[in-house]
Amino acid sequence: MSETYIVFDLETTGLEPSRDDIIEIGAVKIEAGRVTDQYQTLIKRNKALPAHIRDLTGITDADLAGAPELEAVIDDFLKFIGDGILVAHNAEFDLGFLNEALEECGYLRYVGEVIDTVTLAQIVWPREASFSLGSLTERFALAHEQAHRALSDAEATAAMFLLLLERAADLPYLILQQIHGLTEYSDWPLRHFFRRLAESNTSLLKIDEPEGCVTIDRLMHRPVEIGVKENETGGMFAFSADEVEKVLAKGGPMSDLMPGYEERPPQMQMLRAVSEAFQDNKHLIVEAGTGTGKSLAYLIPAVYYAKAAGERVVVATHTINLQEQLRERDVPLLQEVVPFPFDITVFKGRSNYLCMRKVATGVNHPGLITDHQEMTFHVRMLTWLLETRAGDREELTLSGSQADGWNKVSSASDSCINKACPWFRNCYYHRARAQAQNADVIITNHSLVLTDVKADHNVLPGYQYLVLDEAHHMEDEATKHLGDEVSYFQMYGALNRLFRDKNKGLLYQLLQKIDLLQNGDGGVYSDLRATVEKMVEQIGDLRDSNEEVFRLLQDFVIKYSTGTDGGRYTLRLRTETFEVEEAENAWKAIASSSENLQTDVQSFRRLASKVEEYSEDLMRDEMYAGLLTDVSGQVKELDGGWQGLATFLRSVGSETSVLWMEAEDRTMRPVVFLNSAPIDVAPLLHTHLFSKKESVVLASATLTINQDFKYTIRQLGLTESEKIDRLLQLQVESPFDYKKQSLLCVPADALPVKGVSEDVFTTSFAESLTNLARASQGRMLVLFTSHRMLRETYHKTKPMLAEHGITLLAHNIESTSRHRLISEFQRQERAVLFGANSFWEGVDIPGDALSLLVIARLPFWPPNQPVVEARTEKLEREGRNSFMDYSVPQAIIRFKQGFGRLIRTKRDRGAIVVYDRRIVESRYGRHFIKSLPGPWFYQGNEREVLRTVYNWLKSPL
Description:
With 957 residues, the protein is α/β, with parallel strands linked by helices. The chain is 48% helix and 14% strand. Strand 6 and strand 7 (218-221) form a beta hairpin.
């Protein structure tokens, strides 16, 4: 390709082209595949730079004072561009500022070709975890010495663009042809780029279909035939805890594999307990501290028991991270040390798998694609299909409208035509399910286990033995999955997928297909076509009725809720809500509007049934069958949502469920969510899980309160199992020496929680954090319980830390990606990281990168959260102390999770500072300290704490 490319980057004073300014332009020219020239200039600005821009770029007001004016810069830059094609990373941002500057200087807006390297990277590297410039340059070892300076960013983008060019040109010709055909008649920005590639890439060698693929129409790896098998060793050898122990014992297979291997007594304790639970058909609750090696302690017994007894074992984690860790790290290790073959597979919820029929429909009907993001998504699907063997959403990083795109192509039972589908042999979901059916051990997640419970155990292949890792999440997960949510967007989205505008949607596609099938014979399909047209007509009425109900619900929530959090209102529905006559009348109006909606729904449902009747003879046509199944699926989605709405409205006053509504007021649409959840999940878990399974193992690093399992046993429904001696309990110590490795400090003169405004507290807290960060040379993680407090503290702390050369990173400020922030924190020599809710667990920063953990507040859940409020009321009605029996234990478990972020290996050493004096001054505070694994404890004034932390961190382990 002989095109000239101009790769450019702008530094600006903000994010809004209409009110912010360009302060620097950097660009490089690429000709004949190499960089031939560069351009860089600052731009004069008469106003002072915002402080955070000075910090980010290193550019000062003095630097800009002597720089050329914008008019002169634009004239020079246009000459540099010439006839070149513009290239930028996140081009929409840079182009917006460039066009604003062009208009300001009297030029026309730029309308030439622009290539966005974010979009291009998403297509040619579809499985990358992050598409930020920093992440990609680090991933591909590209020079990027001065991030957030225009020329350095442009040079890094240019180096990356050359790699992208090379990779794109190397795509199989048939793929390039498919992309060109999909995008040719659109205004998608990259259409010319891929057209040129397709036209230039005509080598006969490229015309061969990609290795491992079936045909260009079926861009999938050839499936491995999966037959139903019998358990080869089921019942062939006796299960014995002694035999299982040998794997990890000194002198055993693990010892042979790893030089210097040391047997871990806590791990062996847990391994034996899991083996005994399986063998004796009992449940087990086990707390295994960080570093125990609990994954192998349950996986090895699971594999042995599955093969010996011919029983499938399911292992469920809460997080994807742990699921992937088991697959990538632990399973390969098991395969080396277990002396017989076995099958372990990861099986996820159906919506995690791609439906090839839906992808093919999108690719073959480009006229139905509505915007650039949706086009990018479909092109990305084509290149991803060359690489993926699982069709698993987790391989992709999707956000915004691309995430919505996944919802349109994911597998679903309501839209599956099973063996009638031309893709059935290659179906990702059915292949994954067949593998799970044949597996000895299935690795899945809590969500799917609970979905299986709710569906009367018809989702997962049958099993009687279950391991729940990260079991401290089970109460929250059960609350979510054993309840229900209905939202405005559930119905709005289904209606749009059925019909939108004049020529978009499934019903429009169905009408087109009917016209093709009738082939001029108007009488044969007239009833069918007329019925589909009636459905199209009714869509408008349904939209109006749906809009009216949710608009009334939105008004109700906003009027009767007690407050808002960032534009979102929450209202818990109780009998008392309707004691006000005005509220009762408003609710009656909602009920009446809902009844009208139900009448419209019934009419629509009858029409859909008629369409299915008329279509009986047409189902042999694969595309028609697929379209009709998709239509039926959306009708079921609507029906389920509206039934859920009716059930919700009838359930007010329930004694077993908590009902609440959430609404937003900053959107044009009536964005409303209706939620119901069981107040007490314990009886549900007992009835539908623990009493149905032979053995369930619950494992976590945080299950005890005051070194006791009573709270967890009661909350998770294990009390009955304990009464009949079907529950084993084990608490194993971590191999870490917390007394030597960790210091817990509480400043006695820290501002109290009550009686002090948040502004006063955050001002004082920012000064304290600055002093601590200087003592620790950064390397500090600060955990908040409130995003608002995090933001306020951030703005006060950042300039103070900058004076000492310490970088401050904050969740939802620098980035919404936890992974990206942690990576940047580890990369920086002197950095502080602020995190809120999601940072209290699952953050693993071993070694010197993290030496100091600060906890701003003890992590109590807000007492007015609907589920928390309902549960505390229930306990009070039963005569119990809800604060001590529920609020405190919940906070302790979360506190223990936060504490666990600090010490990750035997070589780690660090300090924890808690700025909440309740931990030492309240009657319940001692329970927090007693629940920890024994760190060294110190209490003194803030100056003394600072000195103690400094001395602790500089002393050797």
